[in-house]
Design brief:
- The complex is a heterodimer of chains A (218) and B (202).
- Chain A has nine helices and no strands.
- Chain B starts with a strand and ends in an 18-residue tail after the last strand.
- Chain B has a five-stranded parallel beta sheet with strand order 5-6-7-3-8, with helices on both faces. Chain B has a three-stranded antiparallel beta sheet with strand order 2-1-4, covered by helices on one side.
- Classes of the chains: A mainly alpha (218), B alpha/beta (202).
- At the A-B interface, helix 1 and helix 5 of A face strand 5 and helix 2 of B.
Chain lengths: 218, 202
């Protein structure tokens, strides 16, 4: 399992691995927003938490189809399925690798990009916390979508359509934590809901992903 | 490994039925049959990638090392990294014998992307030796290999059989494995009918 994680991380940072893809997209979106909505800091700081969350979510979405597609194309997914690793373990490791290469850089970059959106000082901590807590859920749900669409040519569109509705609860509560934090309000309720979604998906979805992957490999 | 009255199919359509054979340790079985006769489907079923339509397979599962048409190589990883990864997956550590057996010396640090088709195939087959599994299930293992490499591969299979392993191969060419039994799958062709159940939910 560790070998699989290390291999995926190594592949991600090598040429063509798409490590910087999500991060670059996140950067572009947040840089472009002030140009689009105008330089009024009051408006920007009000929408900053939501914009950061939507940017992170779309950046996450961008790299989802790579989770299984590359392994499917070169046949390693078939070979992994016949290896002594449990399929549930494989999909969990795949989601973890996706989070480390996509989610974690987004979490770390978000406070820096918050400056561009004149995020209120009280918001930095909560943007960081909400993204750190919410992005694992995005990766796990995304892995489920990727498992559903593996083997489909140009499955990216279907993947987005399948996954986006599933992302909505995470987005609502994640952005709510960040917004309330930025405005200095109590964050406990949405934070607990966000944590519930993350841990719930983490506990349940790998089994669903493994089941659909087995069916798709037939 | 024992297969009894096995029926396999692809996409809900039965392909082969009534297939029975035994593969004893130290033995090799070569599957023959024209294109589309169901050799790949049979091997995938035995490897556990798809469920059988009927019949039983005993002694497969965790004892199988499966090699398909594609080699499962990562083009951005070197030969050693590719091989070491699969060795670790199968909880093995020694990749040296595999490098020797398939003449991959001198290519160790080359990214798999820069290998020729035959070299990739050799690396894909070398993977079998680091799995430490008893039953090799091979689907057209000799595609894009030259005659010298085919001989080398036959030598590796012979070595595996001598160590008490067994091999099930689907191939069209003569490997020079005189001791191997041959099974033609053509007579086991299933009568064409469409399954009523949706196989996705079986």
């Amino acid at each position: 399992m560790i070998a699989l994680l290390l291999r995926d991380l190594r592949l991600a940072v090598r040429a063509g691995g798409g490590f910087g893809l999500g991060l670059a997209f996140f950067l572009i979106v947040t840089v472009l927003i002030p140009f689009g909505v105008g330089p009024e800091t009051g408006l920007l700081s009000r929408i900053a938490p939501g914009v950061l969350w939507i940017g992170a979510l779309l950046a996450c979405l961008l790299s989802l189809d790579r989770i299984f597609a590359l392994d499917w194309e070169d046949g390693s997914l078939d070979l992994l399925a016949t290896a002594p690793l449990p399929m549930e373990g494989i999909v969990t490791i795949k989601a973890l690798a996706h989070w480390i290469t996509t989610g974690l850089p987004l979490v770390l970059a978000a406070p820096a990009l918050g400056v561009l959106l004149s995020l209120p000082p009280s918001g930095y901590l909560w943007v960081l916390v909400s993204l750190a807590l919410g992005t694992p859920a995005l990766s796990v749900i995304g892995t489920f979508g990727a498992a559903l669409t593996v083997g489909l040519k140009r499955g990216g569109l279907l993947l987005s359509i399948l996954v986006l509705p599933l992302y909505v609860p995470t987005l609502i509560f994640g952005a709510e934590v960040a917004r309330r934090g930025a405005e200095g309000l109590a964050v406990q309720t949405p934070l607990l809901m966000l944590a519930g979604i993350s841990f719930g998906t983490l506990a349940l979805l790998p089994f669903a992903s493994a089941a659909v992957l087995r069916i798709n490999l037939r | 490994m024992t297969v009894r009255d096995l029926a396999v199919g692809r996409g809900g359509v039965p392909v082969l039925e009534g297939l029975s054979f035994t593969l004893a340790p130290g033995r090799a079985l070569v599957l023959r049959g024209p294109n589309g006769s169901g050799k790949t489907t049979l091997l995938r079923t035995i490897a556990g990638l798809q469920p059988a339509f009927g019949g039983t397979i005993e002694g497969a599962g965790e004892r199988i090392a499966y090699a398909a048409h594609s080699d499962g190589l990562k083009s951005m990883l070197t030969v050693t990294e590719n091989l070491r990864f699969w060795a670790q997956v199968f909880a093995q550590s020694d990749i040296e014998p595999a490098l020797d057996a398939f003449d991959l010396r001198g290519l160790e640090d080359r990214p798999a992307a820069t290998l020729s088709a035959g070299q990739k195939r050799r690396l894909g087959l070398a993977r079998l030796m680091v799995t430490a599994r008893l039953v090799w299930v091979l689907d057209e293992p000799t595609v894009s290999l030259d005659t010298a490499s085919v001989a080398r591969f036959a030598e590796a299979v012979r070595g595996h059989l001598a160590e008490g392993g067994s091999a099930l191969l689907a191939t069209h060419i003569d490997l020079g494995l005189n001791e191997a039994e041959v099974l033609d799958v053509t007579p086991f062709k299933a009568a064409p009918r469409v399954s009523l159940e949706d196989e996705a939910f079986l």
